[in-house]
Amino acid sequence: MSTASTSSHALPGPPNIAERLRPARRTGAVPALHYRPAVPADPEKAAELDRRLEAWARELDLFPAAWKGDFSGFQFGRAVVLQHPGGLDLDRLTVAGKLLLAENIVDSCYCEEDEGRGGSRRGLGGPLIIAQSALDPYHGIPELEEEWREGIRADGPLRSYHFALTDFASFATPSQTDRFVHDIARLHLGYLAEAAWMETGYLPRVWEYLVMRQFNNFRPCLSIVDAVDGYELPEQLYARPEIQRITALACNATTIVNDLYSFTKELASDPDHLNLPQVVAANDRRGLKAAYLKSVGIHNRIMDAFEEESAALAATSPLIARYAEGLAAWVSGNHEWHATNTNRYHLPDYW
Asked: Which of 318, 329, 165 is nearest to 231 (CA)?
């Protein structure tokens, strides 16, 4: 997108800047948000996953020094148990947690400037293409392949990607593994779009923002539900447009949930951070409260579409029904994790 188009669409921020400074006072679920209850998380299973994941991360030296004390607050183990209630066994749940942890490490260390871990929007494409190679290996002459391997081993985020995928591939089929690799590429494309807009000061239209978030979202986590549950939705079914659509709708709903629950956290750390309420406020020239409530409505319409269309598809095939159920469980578990993780999230005082 050219600089000229960037400047031509720039809009002023929401009129009531004082709203940015209003303290958050609420916890729990967003009022009026459409969600289904999650299967309760077994606390012992969650604790065991946390133990395994932290041991793995310490063994591979994945945590930057700035991450001291952050692990327990994120609740990785509880997130995975909530999101994958049909997980076949603890080993598969552990690998799902490794992939989730790796994605967060890459995002935090490469993309997030405000977290003090060396991330930068400027020139982000370079680090991300190398990160992609940690999953989609370089092939060339032996001596250059060895240099590439040394480069992957030398960096914590790259090690996290490489070893998490290695463990995933030990039980997933080649098709499921390739699916994940391509979904990470989608994620990286979304990271790059967001970084470019932030660097140039471009304010996306609401539809443009949601397109970006369809790539920069949780899809790599949702599209592995069949592998974690111990079966495969075959490629010829998974690739069907209607299956791709319910997958995208589920991912988009979970991403807007993240925008809504992380809203006050992002305002406090980076007032210019792009999220759906901010983008709606600027485009509609309305206050943040009205924009936030409109964003809840957008989520609900997407959630309704997911539930209606996945139910219709589930009636056509037991295997599709199982996959749709896994997507729905991930959506519910993701909401429960956000709504109850008071270490990270609080709601604005808009009700």
From this structure: 318
| pLDDT per position as a tens digit, 251-263 | 999 999 999 999 9
Q: What is the DSSP string of 161-208?
A: HHHHHHHHHTTS-HHHHHHHHHHHHHHHHHHHHHHHHHHHT----HHH
Residue with tokens 């799902």: 96
Structure tokens at 323: 């996959």
Whose CA is closest to 171, among 106, 239, 236, 94? 94
Write down the residue that tokens 């790059």 correspond to.
Answer: 192
Q: Can you give the pTM of this predicted structure?
A: 0.90
All residues at 6 or more sequence positions from 160 whose CB lies less than 8 Å from its CB, including other chains: 57, 60, 62, 98, 101, 102, 105, 106
Provide the total of helices (H) and of strands (E) in the chain, helices listed first.
Answer: 18, 0
**What is the model's pLDDT at position 344?**
87
CA distance 14 to 177: 43
- Per the CB < 8 A criterion, the answer to whether 205 and 10 are in contact is no
Mean pLDDT along residues 208-237: 97
Nearest to 103 by CA among 150, 49, 165: 165
pLDDT score recorded for residue 337: 96
Residue 210 structure tokens: 């949601």
Task: Please report, for residues 17, 53, 207, the alpha-carbon distance to residue 78 in angstroms, rounded to integers and kept in the order given.
Answer: 36, 12, 33
The reported pLDDT for the residue numbered 113 is 65
Quick check: 173 and 226 in contact, CB under 8 A?
Answer: no
